Amino acid sequence: MKRLFDITLSLVGLALLSPVLVLLAIAIRLESRGPVFYRGVRIGRYGRPFRIFKFRSMVQDAEKAGASSTSTTDMRVTRIGHIIRKFKFDEFSQLINVLIGDMSIVGPRPEVQKFVDLYTEEEKQILSVRPGITDWSSIKFHNEGEIIEASGIKDADEAYAKLIRPEKLRLQLKYVRERNLWIDIKIIVSTVLTLVSTRMGGKPVGVPDAAQER
């Protein structure tokens, strides 16, 4: 059922967003040298690596010039890249990954290998499901770059590991343990509402509070 849900939504999404995707591709190619898509390696279900489709928001070969995490003032981000990141346009192209089976619409955000290598035995449960475009953690940390920038920690990966990763893992494990189609629908709705709310100065919508679970 979930796979059929993913295929249907990804096909509909790609069809509806195709004009926007074409314009983004043109804008990226006009501004800087390099491919339209960033194809970084991420770790998927059962620990299998795959290449993610993301509209390129940084200069070519950006990972060779810095950390895998990114702050809002990272000099590697292009001008069109700032717009892409602000409105999460770089995530739209991951519908391709959903269609081919690497990802799901909803699921834990895929990590790079070095952070997966730090998983405890409990945290390895995250790898039992397909990674997703959105989940509770990506809603809560919709402003990840701003959090990293405000931390004052020079190493973006260090800031990510200290300020974001622990809560991100808690929320991802919560999803893995409780997942069902109804929760997926709630997360999709919360993602859309959060995108609108936060662009108007509001807060993330619908994220489970750790204090309420105790």
Indicate the radius of gyration in whole angstroms: 17 Å
Oligomer category:
single chain
Helix/strand/pairing category = mainly alpha
DSSP strand content: 5-15%
- What gap, in angstroms, lies between the N and C termini? 32 Å
SS elements, strand count: 6
Low-confidence stretches: none
Shape, principal axes of CA atoms: globular
Average the pLDDT over all residues and give the rounded result: 89
Helix content: 40-55%
Element-level helix/strand string: HEEEEHHHEHEHHHHHH
How many helices? The count is 11
What does the largest sheet look like? 2 strands, antiparallel
Sheet with most strands: strand arrangement: 1-4
Tell me what you see in this structure:
The structure is a single chain. The protein has 214 residues and is mostly helical. The protein is built from eleven helices and six strands. It has a two-stranded antiparallel ribbon with strand order 1-4. Strands 2-3 form a two-stranded antiparallel sheet. Strands 5-6 form a two-stranded parallel ribbon. Helix 1 (2-31) packs antiparallel against helix 2 (79-86) and helix 7 (144-151) crosses helix 8 (156-163). It is globular.
